[in-house]
Structures are given as structure tokens and as C-alpha cells.
User: Fold NADH-quinone oxidoreductase from Motilibacter peucedani.
Amino acid sequence: MSAPFETAQVEQALAGLGAALRGTARTLATPSDLPRAAVAPEAWAVALRALRDGLGTTWFDWLTGVDESDHLEVVACLLAPSGPSAGHGVLLTTALDPGAPVLETAVGVFRGAAWHEREAHEMFGIDFAGHPRLRPLLLPPGFEGHPLRKDFVLASRVARPWPGEHEPSGRTRRRALPPGVPEPGTWGEDAAERTR
Assistant:
């Protein structure tokens, strides 16, 4: 049976980063969870390379963004395909300013990161500096906005009544807006008619 990475192994692989570490590596609550390490955005590519070379995590499994409201978190999962820790890995994270989310591309470290970064660029608006072809991957041409950001307006919720708007007894109560819906008259056809 292969051994999961210990927190000390992750910290040792990232030891050369020094002040660029946002926090120490930590192991999560259950044995099946991966250890995590958080780094400053400017140390992202260096940390990926350090984990690849220091732990043998040569398999770039996935990368995604997470909108935490006050910042955008980028998470990459790296796995070791062989050796004593085969099948185990590490989660590397960094936090970006949601107003200007820019991160160095991981394509120079892991070629397989290209598609993941294109998806994160479309869905979260994260720019990956140095990416060779950061072009649309999933959304149609001309699509505006980033659908997985919390501030993205969900048009289907504007167009359809929200189920919580009426009491079961038929009495109307104060309208509750679902997440992702702006105040009435500030978006869509209503807003367009007001500006005419």
C-alpha cells in the first residue's frame, strides 16, 4: 500500500520558498484527504516546480478557481503516479485580488495545465500571464462575464419567479431575491427601457 505525503514532506519540498509561503502545509481531518500548501501568487510557478521535483508529483490532475467573495482562490491538485506515494498528492492554493486576478501560467511546469487555465480564465476571469493561447474553451463567442463568479447575474433567475416569493397560503410576502439576481429595474429589459 502506498503512503500518503506527510505534512513535513510538503513543507520540505517548499522550504526554499521562505517568505512566499502564505501558511504552512497542513493535513486535513481525514487520512484520505490531501495535504495542502498555500503560497503567494508570485511564488505559484516556483511552488509547482518544487512540488513536482521534490515529491515526484508529476501528474497535474486539475486546477480550478473558487470565488471566496473577498478573493479568488486558485487550487491545483498534483499527484504522484509512481514511487512510495503513488496515487497520493498535494493541493497547492493561492489567493488573488478579484479586481485584477493575474497569476503566472503553469504551462511551463505542466503542459496539461493549459486547458484547466483556459477554463478558469473563462469561468472566473483569471488571467494566466505567459499562457500560450488563452482563448475561449467552453463559452460561445461574444459571451460577457464569468459565470462562476458570485457577482455574475443569473438571467434565468431574473426571468422566472423565485419559489420563495409567495406563501403556501397564497398571501404575498416581501419579495426575496435569490443569489445572483440584481434588484428589479437594474438589469435586462427593465433597465434598458429606463435609459431610453
In short: The chain has two domains: 7-129, 155-194. The mean pLDDT is 82.
